[in-house]
Amino acid sequence: MAAPPTSIEAWLAAAIADAERRGLPELKPLLETIARSTASLRAAYESLKR
Amino acid sequence: VSLDLRRIVDVAPLVKKGDVSPVDLVKSCLEQIDARPELNAFITRLDNHALTEAKQHESEIRSGRYRGPLHGIPIAIKDLIDVAGTKTTSASALPAVEATTDAPVITALRTAGAIIIGKTNLHEFAFGTTSDETAFGPVRNPHDVSRSAGGSSGGSAAALATGMCFGALGTDTGGSIRIPSAVCGTVGLKPTLGEISCAGVVPLSTTMDHVGPMTRNVPDAALMYEVLTGRSPLTIRDSSDRVTFGVPQAYFCDRLDDGARQGLDCARRALAQLGHVVRDVDVAHAAWTPETYLHIVLPEASAYHATWLERSPSSYSPGVRLRLEMGRYLLAEDYVRALRLRTELTHAVDAAMEGCDVLLLPAQPTAAPPVGATSVTVAGTQEPVRAMMLRLTQLFNMTGHPSIALPVAHTVDHLPRGLQIVGRQGQTPRLLEIAMSVEKQFAQCG
User: Fold this and answer.
1) Which of B63, B157, B300, B362 is buried deepest, with most CB atoms within 10 A?
2) Looking at the DSSP assignment, which residues form a beta bridge with residue B359?
3) DSSP codes, B333-401
4) Greatest CA span in chain B, whole angstroms?
5) Are the C-beta atoms of B382 and B376 separated by less than 8 Å?
6) Cα separation of B136 and A24, whole Å?
7) Nearest-CA neighbor of B196 among B289, B81, B273, B98?
8) A1 to chain B nearest CA, in Å?
9) Phi, psi (deg, nearest 5) at residue B119
10) Are strands B244-248 and B358-362 parallel, antiparallel or unpaired?
11) Closest Cα to residue B183, out of B232, B129, B239?
12) Looking at beta carbons, which residues of chain A come within 8 Å of B341?
């Protein structure tokens, strides 16, 4: 059985934590933008299945 | 027939007859480069090489040797493309490697007789739309130096607009040929995906990169396209057929400034008056375009740059570095979803073109933004400059449809606006035929 998709919230939290660990806090707003974009992408993808 | 000595198709026969010297053509271009240093159009100048070659080309004409349709014509090359004996800097502060061989597109140009006059500035690693993140100074718009020349092939467009070359090569992954062409008032062709070799070109997105000609008019773009694809020269002619133009509405026409809307309206009227059919169409799911594009371009670009991002991150421009870093965080599962949506969008563009010969739309929603601007207001809505400039072009990099940007006259301000015509898959010659015809009609707009 396939694993469920990684949740965007979990992905975003992990990505921001990693970026801060790497000394790249300025990535945070960009990652938040990407998270919104990923949510739209996944919604579009799911709509193909309906 | 009017003779325009800015057009390759007019100059080349005079060179062949010996009436115009390649040396004079090269000198004329070098003078223009000297005249506008503030534009930062070139990274590497090849003055001595170009003059030496021009003398050789001139003597060949005297002895009856004609290399081909670009014999003695000065051409500029975006500095993302390998030219033997020059560094391919990609406009970056990262250490550049000197190319030992020409990229296949350079070989094709040289075989046709072109003289490489220099390598043009760009948005670093082609990863931007404004050509102001570059280690060689921002490329400035020749029509208003406070504004961007567009990007990423901004140096090529600025050079063309000011007579620094007769033709140029650009690359286009989300609009990087068409965007600077539109805002600098020149012509840029993104051919069908895969039609022109990208070997010897620093990649941005290996599934969406295109190489194409940039010129001052459509016949010159057609001639360079013929050279680059090995076709017989001057066989693409303007079309006298009645053409059906589909104008995509939702998403594409949602937010345009007055100049872009006026240019589109004027073109519609002019084409209809000439007996062409112009009708509204819709591209299903067009609103999916930005997120689909983003989830493909970011990881593909990051994959190529992974080693240097680790080794020398501070050598990148800050904005370019951050975009590359973002790509490292995207999940493979979302990349795969984006590829699936890309296929769907490709079918949607094909479906929108049913019953149409081509699509007609603005190349840009606005004129060139100010150098360094990060956001602009278009039709009352503020949006990031990069997203705005990619909005009307990036879809066709994903779908692979050939697309050309060409200038249209307007009366809103003194800044150029461009229209975009999109052809059917694999039918770039037909697109060019129609674009030649349209270009003639645009002279009536404004």
Assistant:
1) B157
2) B246, B422
3) HHHHHHHHHHHHHHHHHHHHTTT-SEEEEES-SSSPPBTT--EEEETTEEEEHHHHHHTTTTHHHHH--
4) 63
5) yes
6) 25
7) B81
8) 16
9) -120, 130
10) parallel
11) B129
12) 41, 44-45, 48
Predicted local confidence at residue A2, as pLDDT: 60
Listed by number, the residues of chain A in 15-44 with a beta carbon closer than 8 Å to a beta carbon of chain B are: 15, 18-19, 24, 26-27, 30-31, 34, 37-38, 40-42, 44
- pLDDT band at residue B446, thresholds of 50, 70 and 90? very low
Pairing mode, strands B417-422 and B403-408: antiparallel
Angle formed by the axes of helices A8-21 and A27-49, nearest 10°: 160
| Residues linked to residue B118 through DSSP beta bridges, in sequence order | B45, B76
Closest to B215 measured CA to CA, from B74, B91, B313, B333: B74
* B292 interaction partners in chain A (CB closer than 8 Å): 41, 44
Q: How far apart are CA B442 and CA B218, in angstroms?
A: 12
CB neighbour list of residue B310: distance below 8 Å, 6 or more residues apart: none
| Whole-angstrom Cα Rg for chain A | 13
Q: How do B381-384 and B187-190 pair as beta strands?
A: unpaired
Q: Which of A38, A46, A47, A49 to probe the B interface (max B CBs under 10 A)?
A: A38
CA distance B227 to B104: 11
Question: H helices then E strands: how many in chain B?
Answer: 14, 17
Averaged pLDDT for residues A13-41: 97
Q: What is the CA radius of gyration of chain B?
A: 20
Per-residue buried b or exposed e for B411-444, using 16+ beta carbons within 10 Å of the residue's own CB: eeeebbbbbbbbbbeebbbbbbbbbbbbbebbee
For residue B143, pLDDT beyond 80: yes
Residue A6 pLDDT: 83
The pTM for the full model equals 0.97
Rounded mean pLDDT, B208-217: 98
Mean pLDDT calculated for residue range B227-251: 95
Told to judge if B176 belongs to the known catalytic residues of this protein, a careful annotator would answer yes
CB B201 within 8 A of CB B82: yes
Residue type, B378: V
> Do B151 and B335 touch, CB atoms closer than 8 A?
no
Show contacts of B334-337: CB within 8 Å, 24+ apart: B334/A38, B334/A41, B334/A42, B334/B295, B335/B295, B335/B296, B335/B299, B337/A41, B337/A42, B337/A45, B337/B295
Can you list the positions of beta strands (E) in B175-330?
187-190, 210-215, 244-248, 277-281
Average pLDDT of the residues in B424-443: 92
